[in-house]
Design a protein that fits this description.
By secondary structure, the protein is of the alpha/beta class. The protein has one domain: Decaprenyl diphosphate synthase-like (Undecaprenyl pyrophosphate synthetase). It is 40% helix and 12% strand. The strands form 2 sheets. It has a 3-stranded parallel beta sheet with strand order 1-3-2, sandwiched between helices. Strand 2, helix 5 and strand 3 form a beta-alpha-beta unit. The chain is globular and about 70 Å long. The chain starts with a helix and ends in a 28-residue tail after the last helix. The structure holds farnesyl diphosphate (FPP). Farnesyl diphosphate binds next to helix 1, helix 2, strand 1 and helix 4.
Length: 237
């Protein structure tokens, strides 16, 4: 959700107004993506590193998040959205922790889009936590493969992201889904998060659909006849 602060500052508003505007565009984004067949959307709302922001801004973001959970959960539930928190819960204040848990309980059987809210999320912390839990579970090292490891991550309920959209012009991954993004396509845009609208999202999906994903391998069209075994080549006349 990069660019909330700059969006507000450009309009002479306090940064927190940008975070409020950033929440207002979430439902529109889901309404654009759901009919296109998108099943999972993960919003990177608050990273483990964001605790280092000035206390006033951190408090403001917590208030905006609490207010969003209180005011938007029911509407999302009515739209069949499943809400899942991705990240640590122990540093959230108990009321917010309970409100997030209740939003998850209420929407857990919904079958529409899954909205992952990454809040107090950090990719490195997530990987370390998975390692700790695997050790505590006493697993035999020989049974630990990528599939099992993925099940120890906060995102065990969903596939790896096909596409990561980074708004606000940044060209970094910033500790987001480090394990899960191994083969994600990445789309960078200078658009500030509150300005990300349906038109640009549709362009993003078209651009994604034109990408050729190879996962480190080769697609048949990447090979020339000279790369094929002699017996597989078309006969020479
Ligand atoms: C990034 O913009 C945004 C944040 C650090 C906070 C976003 C969190 C919320 C809006 C809380 C509610 C979230 C949900 C999902 C309901 P930035 O401050 O880094 O903006 P900048 O790059 O312009 O400085």
């Amino acid at each position: 959700m990069d660019g909330n602060g700059r969006w507000a500052q450009k309009q002479g508003l306090p940064r927190i107004a940008g975070h409020e505007a950033g929440v207002q565009c979430i439902q529109g984004i889901l309404e654009t993506l759901a009919p296109k067949g998108v099943k999972f959307v993960t919003l990177y709302a608050f990273s483990t590193e964001n605790w280092g922001r000035p206390q006033e801004e951190v408090d403001g973001i917590m208030d905006v998040f609490s207010e969003a959970v209180a005011s938007q959960t029911q509407a999302l539930h009515e739209k069949n959205v499943r809400i899942v928190h991705v990240g640590k819960t122990e540093n959230l204040n108990p009321d917010l922790r309970e409100a997030v848990a209740e939003a998850q309980r209420l929407t857990r059987n919904n079958t529409g889009i899954t909205l992952n809210v990454a809040f107090d999320y950090g990719g490195r912390a997530e990987i370390l936590e998975a390692v700790r839990r695997i050790i505590k579970d006493g697993l035999d090292p020989d049974v630990i493969d990528e599939e099992l490891f993925s099940r120890y991550l906060f995102t065990a309920h969903c596939p790896d992201p096909d596409l990561i959209i980074r708004t606000g012009g940044e060209q970094r991954i910033s500790n987001f889904l480090l394990w899960q993004s191994a083969y994600s396509e990445i789309y960078h845009t200078p658009t500030l998060w509150p300005d990300l609208g349906a038109d640009e999202l549709e362009e993003v999906l078209v651009s994604f659909s034109l990408r050729r994903r190879r996962y480190g391998g080769l697609n048949p069209e990447d090979q020339s006849p000279e790369d094929q075994a002699p017996e597989a080549r078309a006969p020479q006349k």
